[in-house]
C-alpha cells in the first residue's frame, strides 16, 4: 500500500503546487504518515481537459465494454486488502463491519450499473419513421437516444468514504452514462480516496480505456476551479447545505450554466400514529433510538424530527425513547470538525426557546454523546424552520401535535426532505390518505413502519427530494435512476441506417425496447 | 370576441394595477382597440397560489381525465373562428396559412400529449419487491413513479403565437405531467394570448377542474415576480438569450432554486459537402434560401451559418444562393422591435472585419429585406464567436473552410446549437464519421440533406441542445419527451397495496409497462 498523495491526471500522478496537507486519525486526531498535495488550478484544468479528450472515445465504446469496466472497478475495490480496511477505519472512525459492508454496497452498486448498461433502456431509444406521403407535409425519419452530457465533477461525502465517495453512486452512474469523472477527494478521508483512486486507475488500464476517463484532485478550495472548468458538464455532490448551495451558485454563474445534483440537508421526519404507539411503542422507541444513533447519527437519512400526537401513548413512548437514547454509548465521529459542528448544533437547540433536552447519553472526550429534545409544536411552523436545521450526529427532536389535521396543515410548509416515515397500525392507515398526499409533495421517499436509515440500492430507490434535501428534485443519487442525471437526448433526422448509432438502427442490433411510431417494440423497425 | 385584457386568476378576470398598455398591428404599428392591464405583484402571487391549490387535486385526477382535458383544450382552440385568425394575423404579421397551420400544430400537440398521458410510460413505474430472507439484511418493498414537480411558469415566444405560447408545448407538457400552469402572456400578441387563455379557461370549466390549473398574467416586468413566486417549481421559456439567461439567474437566486428550461439562441449550422453541391447545388441554394427566409427568418431553427469547402462548387453555390436570396421580397416582421433588432444585427455583421455582404434583397419601409454575408473562416474560431451571435431575421452567413479536417477541429469550439444540417452525397458520407461524432456533442438534432426549419412534433424529436441553444441540454421543448422536464421521482417503501398510487399497485390496474425486479413487465407483480 503506497499513498502518493498527488493528483490523478490522465493516468499520471502529479503535484506542482508544493502545498501539502495531512490526513488524520478520526479517533485521536493524530496526523497519519501521509502527505497530500493541494491541486493547482492548472492541475484541475489538466484533469478536466484529459476527461474531455477521453469523453470522445469513452462515450462510444460498446456497452459491453462499459459494463465490464464498471465490474473491473468493483473487482479492484473488492481486492483491496485488510490493510486498506484498517486505513479507512482509522481515517473515518467507522467500525470494521460497517467498512466491509459499505465496500460491498459500493461494489454491488457498480455491478448494478453494469446491468443497467447491458439492459440499455437508459438509452431511451425512440424512432418515428418517415411518412413520405403525409399531407400537407411529409414526415422525415427521426430517431432519438440519450448520450452522456460530458465530463462530470464528483464531490464525495465524508460520511460514506466508499459508497458516496470516489467510486460511489455519482461516479458509478456517470461512468455508466458514458461520462468521464473528475473527483474532488474529500479531505476527511484522503488516503482512502487515494487507494480507491488507484483501484479505479488499475481498472482503466486493464480495460484499455483512455486514462482521462478517471481523474482526481486533492485539496481545499479546488472545488471552485473544478466546477468552473469549461469541460465539466455536470456536478454530483453529497454534503452540507452551505457547501452544496455554493457549488450550485458557482455552476449557475458560469458563462454556460451546468446542472448540479447536490444531496444536502434533510431531517427525515418520523410520524408516529397513536395506535402504533399503543401496540408497539417500546419496540418503536428502541428501533428509533438505534436509527438515530446508527453510525454516530452521521447519515443524511438520520431521523432528526419525531412527530407524535398529544396523549399518554406518546408520553410513554417519549420516556422509553429517552431511556433508550441514554443507554447508547458515546461514539467517535468522522473527524474533529464533525464533532465540533455536532456540539454547536446541540448548543443551538438548547438555546432555542421552546426546546428542552429530554435525554442525554453518557459523554467522553472526543466522542459524541447521544441527545434528544422535546420542542413546542409551534416551532414547526416558526419562521426560519428552527427544528429543520440539520444537527448532524446522534440526536433528534420530539414534537407532539394535537391531531392529524394539524399535521396535514403543517406538512406543505416543511422543507423538502429525503424521506418521511410513518408508523401506523393497519386500522389507522385508512385515515392517512391526506397526509400521504401532502408528504408525497415534500419528500423523495415515503416509508411505512420502518426507519429512514438504510437506503437500498435498487431500481426503485429515490434518494432525493425537494430543496434543500437536494438541489434538484428531479434526480436521485442512489439507485439506477441516478444515471438519468448525466444523460441528454439527441436525435438524428434522415440519416441512412449504417450511419445511425447502434441503438437506433433498423435491425435493433442491441435488442433494445424502443418506442417505434408510438408503440413499444423489442424487434426491428417494421419495413 | 371580447378582449378583456385582465389577468386570468383562479377562474376570474382581475386587474388592480391601473397600468394599461396596447397591442399593435405588426405591419402598420397601429394600436389595436384593446386595453391590457399590467399585473401587479400581488396578482402574480394570487395566480401562483391558485395554481398551487389546484395542484393538490389536479395531479391526482385519473389519467383519462387529464387526457380528455388536453383534448378539450385542443377542441376549444380549434373552434376559434375566422375573426380569431385575422386577429393573430394582425398582431403578428404572419400569413393566414401559417396561422391556420400553426393552430393545427398546436392542437395536434395537445392531442399527442393526451396519448402520452394515456400510454402512461411517463410515470416511469419501477417496483422492487421485498426480499425478507435476504442476508445480511432483508430488502423492503420499494416502488417508484414520477409525479409532477408543481406549478410551472410558462413564457411564450413572440415568433410562434400559438405553438410556443399560451397553449404551446411548454403548457401542454406541463399539464400532461400533472402541473398547473401560470403563463406570462407575450406582449407581442396580447390579444391572441387572451383568446387562447379564454379557450383554455372554457376547457377547465368543461372538465370541472379547479380553476387554478390555468392562470395568465399580462404586462412587462411581471416575469420576475412569477419566477420568484415560491409556489412555482419550474420554468419553461422560449425567447432571446438575454431574456432566458435573466430568468435562469433569477431562478438560481431563489432561496430554493428551481429548474429553468429556456430555449434561447441557435444559428443552426448547415454544412455543404462538395459532391452534394456538384450534384445539386442549385436545388440546395434554392431550398436554403427558402429556409433562411421562411416566416421572415423568425425561427429558432433558422440557418444562420452555412459552411462549405473552398472550391468552384461552393463558389457556384454561393452565386446561386445570392441570386435566390435577392429574389425574395421584403417581409413584415413580428413587430417593430423585432425589425429594429434585425437591422442592428445586419449592421453589426457589416461592421465586423472579415465579413462582407454578398446579397441583399429589395427593401421597403417597415419590412425586412433579405441579406447574406461571406465571412473569413478564421472568424469561426475568433474570440466572442462573432459569427454565432444570432441575427433574428431573413439573413445568413457563408463560410468556406479548407477541408473537412479543419471543420472537425472547429466543431467542438462552436456554441451549443439546436440543430446541425449536413448536405452530402452517399459516397461522401462514409468520410463524415468524425464530423458526426463531433456534432453530436454540440447539438440536439442532426439533420441529413434537409433544412433545419420545420420541427416535427413527435416522440423522437429533440428541440434542445447545449448552452446557449438551451439552458439545460437534458430537456427538449418539442416532442413528447418534453414532459420529463416537469416530473420528479418519488418512492414508497413498505406500503400495503391499497395505499399505493394506482401505477404501483400489484395488479397493475393501469396496464403500464413497469420495471419489476429488474425485468420489464406489463402484467401484475408476480406473487
UniProtKB/TrEMBL annotation, chains A, B:
UniProt keyword annotations, A-Z: Oxidoreductase
Molecular functions per Gene Ontology: oxidoreductase activity, acting on the aldehyde or oxo group of donors, NAD or NADP as acceptor
Ranges for domain Aldehyde dehydrogenase: 20-327
Matches recorded under SUPFAM superfamilies: ALDH-like
InterPro entries per record: Ald_DH/histidinol_DH, Ald_DH_C, Ald_DH_N, Aldehyde_DH_dom, Aldehyde_DH_Superfamily, ALDH_KGSADH
Oxidoreductase among keywords: yes
The name this protein goes by in its record: 2,5-dioxovalerate dehydrogenase
Classification of source organism: Bacteria, Pseudomonadati, Thermodesulfobacteriota, Desulfuromonadia, Geobacterales
